[in-house]
Structures are given as structure tokens and as C-alpha cells.
Amino acid sequence: FFGRLYDMPDAARVADAVAPEKPLFSLSYLGPFKRVGTLSGAATLYTLDGVLAPATSEPDRTVFIVAPSLDKRPIADVEAFSRNALQSLPSSKDVAVTTVRKLKIAGRDATELGAAATHAQAGTPLLIVQTVRVLSGGGYVRMIGLTPASGSDKFLPEFRKMAESYS
């Protein structure tokens, strides 16, 4: 068996160029946000200035994060999963869900949770909007918008449009 395997000249090839990477998702609406890049594997960060870390410390920056699951596990109760995931955000504490919205994004079920929270380090009030969309074939994507509470009226509609533009 091994002799035949090693005798196969076409078993592996090296290409002249790297194949283009297929994006995991796209957002057709970014509003005032700019894509910064990938964080921790597959998560993508969007900020207003397009910068990962500003020159000065701004603990309450407005950001939007898209984080696809790393596996294809089925999610039986999307709202319960969403509530647990929302509590796990390291940048916030005292998270209190204020709104729950069921919707469809690109034909798939999604749950949006709006929450009031406190920034874990700065102690300032935050608005968090997390949308969890179930993926076909299993798994999910979390879309999380964070802004100082003072930006709620301005950024809540932006976070919603961005999440709803997911495909």
C-alpha cells in the first residue's frame, strides 16, 4: 500500500500563487464604520475610525464585532444561548437585557438582545446590542455593537442595519 502511495507523482502540488481566501461573511451596510481586521481567529472588528487601538485610551469606544462560531453545534434555544453569551462579554458587567427582538436575517432565524451594562474598567454606562443568527448546517454568528449609553439613539439603528445586512 505505502509503495503505491509514494509512487503517485500527482498526489500533491505546489501552486505558484496563494488561492484567494473566501470570506466567511459579508455586511452590505457599514454606515459610519470601517473594517479594522480580524481578531482572535474569525471575529472581525469594525470601528468608527478604522483603527484597532487608538493612540489614547478610550475604554468606551463605539465598536461592532462579527464573530462566527468555531464549530457547527446546533443551537436549540437561540434566546437562551444569546442571553448566556451576552453575559460573557469581558468588557462589560451588570448586563441587564432591556429588549428582545426575533427576526430573520438572510432567511435564517435570529435573536437580537438590547442591554444596558457598565464598562468593566471605566464604570461608565454602555448600550450593547447583540444579534445571534443561526447558520445553515449548524453553528451561529454573533454580531455585537457596543457604545457608550450616550450614543444609544445614534448607534442603535446603525447596529441593527449592519446586523440585518449580514450574508
Write the layout of secondary structure elements.
Layout: H1 2-6, E1 34-39, E2 43-47, E3 63-68, H2 78-87, E4 92-105, E5 108-119, E6 125-134, E7 140-148, H3 152-164
Antiparallel strand pairs: 1-2, 2-3, 3-7, 4-5, 5-6, 6-7
Round the Cα radius of gyration to an integer and report it: 20 Å
SSE series: HEEEHEEEEH
Q: Helix coverage percent of residues?
A: 10-25%
Output mean pLDDT.
87
Q: How far apart are the termini?
A: 45 Å
Report low-confidence residues grouped into runs of 5 or more. Answer: 1-6
Give the CA-based shape: globular
Describe the structure in your own words.
The protein has a seven-stranded antiparallel β-sheet, sandwiched between helices. The chain is globular and about 50 Å long. The longest helix has 13 residues, at 152-164. It is built from three helices and seven strands, in the order H-E-E-E-H-E-E-E-E-H. It has helices spanning 2-6, 78-87, 152-164; strands at 34-39, 43-47, 63-68, 92-105, 108-119, 125-134, 140-148. It is an alpha+beta fold.
Provide key terms for this protein.
alpha+beta, 37% strand, 167 residues, disordered N terminus, 17% helix, seven-stranded antiparallel β-sheet, globular, 3 helices
